[in-house]
Design goal:
The chain is α+β, with helices and mostly antiparallel strands. The chain contains eleven helices and 21 strands.
């Protein structure tokens, strides 16, 4: 702290800032909040603390631990990805607690750069294993991606805190993307093994024989020397309600459509029960019923970005549907009313299969497409499509069919779409190159499974981005 004799430093691996805010909220003791604010204000000041006071392999790399500049001057999402999003989450906490617009502006600036330039289509962040870090903008390789499970969890930490300051569906969209894809991918369907790294393309032979890809695993691991990801998944999933919902004095915000029952204490002493039934992530139907209160309050229901602004909204009681008034703002539908027993708000979002292309600055994905339905990103696996996935292509003019299926005993929605397999061209001579005489293509039906379910049926190839023709 600032007093004589105390350290003028800050944590190497950020997370204490969030913890100090939690301590302050639990105890009401200002000293915890002030210490967190000190850490936020001190990081990035010169002379750099780690250069003069710490012996660490990355002590002289100020970008590694986000101390390259004071937070209000930072314009680049950089360094160790997990440390970064933990750091931004702590800064967002301080911005909220102190009502500091300059800290909020820094958070928003860094958030925008991260999701628009440095985030994978799966919600993964941190492109390089060197320093487990963010790379330069639009550098998002698939087969060497790091995309640590903890980093996507940290992204959810950051998103929730941004939502607490400003209810904007953009933050919840990223939170949902990370949850249903990279976070769930980090754990096997039986809960017994885990991924530290979440690549978007895997060839098992390369994982075993190429040192550059030694960090990429083709099967989930039972444990890790640095065992941060398994307990991080456990604590996130056990506290998922605090991400799905936030509230103010007069409004309950629904950010993630997860079936649940909530209770809300009203100012008049009544306890409102809010029951949410949801078909997510496979079906876009949501039902909300409020009971046990006579006082009006507001429900704010998120319109997912993947829905393209399309939805159906109505009230249903005794089998009769009627319109309901709602104000739309920043991607949320605000419904304020005296809630009657037996009424249900019904919300329907279209879950069309979407064929996505990448920004042209993402060189690895040029000429390729990815498939998404609702919040779920899909991938090809050798188990369904045979070896050499790199020889496959999607017919861009074809319509994808949604089919019922199972992966390792779990019922899922799979996608099937017409495509082609390019037959290998055998060349004369001793070199692996030659003049193109003819390219043969065989018509095939490609089967895509949800990305989070890959590697649950044994070791095999996988890819998210597929050539489109």
């Amino acid at each position: 702290g600032p007093e004589d004799g105390k350290l003028q430093g800050y944590p190497g691996h950020e997370i204490a800032e969030m913890a100090l805010v939690r301590l302050y909220q639990a105890t009401g003791e200002d000293r915890y909040l002030k210490l967190g604010k000190f850490f936020v204000e001190e990081r990035g000041k010169q002379p750099y603390y780690f250069e003069t006071n710490e012996q660490h392999p990355n002590a002289t790399n100020e970008y590694y631990h986000q101390s390259y500049a004071p937070i209000r001057e930072q314009n680049e999402v950089a360094g160790h990805a997990v440390r970064a999003v933990y750091w931004y989450s702590g800064v967002a906490d301080m911005a909220r607690e102190y009502q500091d617009d300059t800290l909020w502006e820094a958070c928003e600036r860094l958030w925008n750069q991260m999701v628009s330039e440095k985030m994978y289509v799966t919600g993964g962040i941190g492109a390089t294993h060197l320093g487990e870090a963010f790379s330069f903008s639009y550098d998002l390789p698939n087969d060497t991606a790091y995309a640590e499970t903890c980093a996507s969890i940290g992204l959810m930490f950051f998103a929730r805190r941004m939502l607490e300051m400003k209810p904007d569906a953009r933050y919840a969209d990223a939170m949902e993307l990370a949850l249903y894809n990279t976070v769930l991918s980090g754990m096997a369907l039986d809960g017994k093994s885990f991924f530290y790294v979440n690549p978007l393309e895997v060839v098992p032979q390369a994982c075993h024989e190429d040192e550059r890809k030694a960090h990429v695993k083709s099967v989930r691991q039972k444990w890790f020397g640095c065992a941060c990801c398994p307990p991080n998944v456990a604590r996130l999933l056990s506290s998922i309600g605090s991400y799905a919902y936030t509230e103010t004095e007069d409004t309950l915000f629904v950010h993630l459509y997860i079936g649940s029952t909530l209770t809300r204490k009203m100012e008049n002493g009544e306890t409102a029960a809010v029951e949410i039934q949801s078909g997510f992530p496979w079906d876009g139907a949501v039902s909300v019923q409020v009971s046990g209160c006579t006082a009006p309050f507001t429900l704010a229901l998120r319109i997912p970005g993947w829905a393209g602004g399309a939805y159906e909204l109505f009230l249903e009681a005794d089998g009769v549907r009627r319109p309901v008034e709602a104000a739309e703002k920043d991607g949320y539908l605000y419904i304020t009313r005296n809630w009657q027993e037996g009424e249900r708000v019904q919300l329907l979002f279209p879950m069309e299969v979407q064929i996505l292309s990448a920004d042209s600055r993402i060189r690895e994905d040029i000429g390729k497409v990815a498939l998404r339905r609702g919040p779920v990103v899909y991938c090809l696996e050798e188990q369904d499509n045979g070896k050499d996935l790199h020889l496959l292509s999607v017919d861009l003019g074809a319509d994808a069919a949604v089919v019922e299926g199972a992966v390792a005993g779990m019922d899922v929605r799979m996608l099937e779409i017409s495509g082609k397999r390019r037959e290998p061209v055998y060349l004369d001579g001793n070199l692996p190159y030659g003049i193109v005489r003819q390219v043969k293509r065989e018509a095939v039906v490609l089967r895509f499974i949800p990305y989070f379910t890959w590697a649950n049926r044994g070791e095999n190839e996988m890819c998210v981005w597929v050539r489109g023709e």
